[in-house]
Amino acid sequence: MPEGIDPARGQERWDGRTYYGRAQLKPAPFHNALVGSYVFLAGLSGGAQLLSALLDLVRGPAAEPTVRRGRYLAVLAPTLGTACLISDLHTPQRFYNMLRVFKTTSPMSFGSWLLVAFGGFGTLTAAAQFAAERTRGFGWLRGLARAVQLPAALTGAGIATYTAALFSATSTPRWAAAPCSLAMRYAAASIASAAAALGLGERRTAVGRDLDAVAVAALAVELAAAMSDDASQRRAGIGDAAKPHLLGIVVPLGLFAASLLRPGRRRLLSTLAGIGVLADSLAMRIRVLDEGDESARRPELSMRFAQPENLRSGG
Fold it and tell me: Does domain 29-160 have CATH number 1.20.1630.10?
């Protein structure tokens, strides 16, 4: 059997050589700080819209202040987030051009329309909420806000996670190595950051405890997804040993858990945990983009990742 052939499968193995160390892929042409900020704001807005709708349905009038904040937070993606996205496109008309067609097979096209739909529903919900608070005799406005928040919540769930599908659909090894884990991590981080942001305005209330409990559950899922993501990268031959970034999840998770066990210090512990979650959620989005660029620049990673899965580690 010739050298470089797996005798058990008859498949040719990559022998580790590259073409003079030149990269076979180009890094994504993103401004990572801008795109990372957009992804963070999309997750925060989508999660806030979803949680506010659930609280409105479950807690009713007791959660009204939190529901109001959630509806206003949801406007961050259609406004500041869209500004970051269009700024990164360099030519603003590119965003308009992406709306000329709708392709379900294109994550970019699907995401563009999803952002427009979420922006429309979310903005209408927030506008109805704002108008209802400042007018009398227009009770139907609150009903309108409650009705529109349902499609806003559904599109919010999509806007919080579609970016993971967008990145995973590329040839960039870091992003394509574990699409399911990355999607789960983005979804959990979106819910955790939304619960943290909404919880910053809560005092010793039942709704505040609910939000802390949601944050604990979301962070636990994110931690599991992050560990699975790291393991998948190592199996694909593009990752390294355990990373310190997990502390950005573990520390807030411990603080939120402590806030539930020590009600007397819930406010302080929850606030510290919430700030940590928001900071790590933004940093994680930017870090994933940076790691993707690095994996694209290194030909030994991209060429190894291009091999059949059963040959990446030598069979």
Answer: yes
